[in-house]
From TrEMBL:
Gene3D superfamilies: 3.40.50.920, 3.40.50.970. Signal peptide: none annotated. GO terms for molecular function: transketolase activity. Keywords: Transferase. Its EC number is 2.2.1.1. This is Transketolase, C-terminal section (EC). The keyword Phosphoprotein does not apply. It is an enzyme of class 2 (transferase). Residues 2-166 form the Transketolase-like pyrimidine-binding domain.
Length: 300
């Protein structure tokens, strides 16, 4: 099966044929994959080289002319390094575009800490007006990208090598979906965390919500699930910085007695880079680690 990044390349290449206002801006990453599309659309597939501030600025400049730019590189080079350009060139100028990242929090540990971006969603959360998609399967990534391509807003699509075995129907406007219903609490699984959350909560009397669009946050869906339970406690399991959505979950339940536990990537830098699966386990995001913390939190 192809990866989310593979699917992004094939889908975006096809969209270039279908949508004349669409453009793809690269900073060397995935340039080989887009080579056929660049030959077909040399004026709408632009590789600026390893110049990430220029990458974002060029995309925003295209948006000012009425184009719909898809701006792509690794998450650390798309959100963190050129953050000022994301804030000013897109946000301050109030233009739309699609940022599509790869490599997630620690997908390529051999690349070192420079290629890790567990704080990308939290950083983008400091800005107004961004829709954030975190697909858990290549099919979901394709559906969300196609939906974003037809709009005019600011969208961040976070791709990863981590993925669930099964795709689920997704839409940026549909909110969180109910995967399992229970009475003792609510667990929100974001994107590629769903399979591990389902394994971790097997046999537990909890509701599991699946989130592929985390901004805007589906406050009503969380409130509905928590209100139907015997307590309104919520666990948010995210594939990036732990606690990124805890405040949003708390605000959704502010007039109900509740507790919120945010699980995700810790702040400590893991200097023995190892493999992606080892990072997952070290951060307690494997089924065993999740079950221990979820049961400990929800225990009466």
């Amino acid at each position: 099966m192809d990866t989310m990044r593979d699917r992004f390349i094939s889908t975006a290449s096809q969209l270039l044929d279908e949508e004349p206002r669409l453009a793809v801006v690269l900073a060397d990453i995935s340039a080989d994959g887009f080579a056929p599309a660049r030959r077909s659309h040399p004026d709408r597939v632009i590789n600026v080289g390893i110049r990430e501030q220029l990458l974002v600025g060029a995309g925003a400049g295209m948006a000012l002319t009425g184009m719909r730019p898809i701006v792509h590189t690794f998450a650390s080079f798309l959100v963190e390094r050129p953050f000022e350009q994301v804030k000013l060139d897109f946000g301050h100028q109030d233009v739309g575009g699609i940022l599509v990242s790869a490599a997630g929090s620690y997908d390529w540990p051999a690349g070192g800490f420079t290629h890790m971006a567990p704080g990308d969603v939290a950083l983008l959360d400091t800005l107004d007006g961004w829709t954030v998609h975190v697909p858990g399967h290549p099919d979901e990534a394709e559906a969300l990208l196609r939906e974003a391509a037809t709009g005019d807003d600011r969208v961040y699509v976070r791709l990863s090598l981590q993925e669930n075995r099964q795709a689920r129907p997704v839409s940026g406007g549909s909110g969180f979906s109910v995967v399992r219903e229970g009475r003792r609490g609510t667990v929100i699984a974001v994107g590629p965390m769903l399979d591990n959350v389902l394994a971790a909560t097997e046999g537990l009397d909890v509701t599991v919500l699946y989130a592929t669009t985390v901004r805007p946050f589906d406050a009503e869906g969380v409130r509905r699930a928590a209100g139907a339970a015997t307590n309104a406690d919520v666990v948010v399991v995210e594939p990036y910085l732990a606690g990124t959505s805890s405040a949003a979950a708390g605000e959704a339940l502010m007039d109900l007695p509740h507790r919120v536990l945010g699980l995700g990537v810790g702040r400590a830098e893991l200097r023995r880079y190892g493999q992606m699966e080892e990072h997952l386990t070290t951060h307690g995001l494997d089924p065993q680690g999740l079950r221990e913390r979820i049961t400990g939190f929800l225990r009466p």
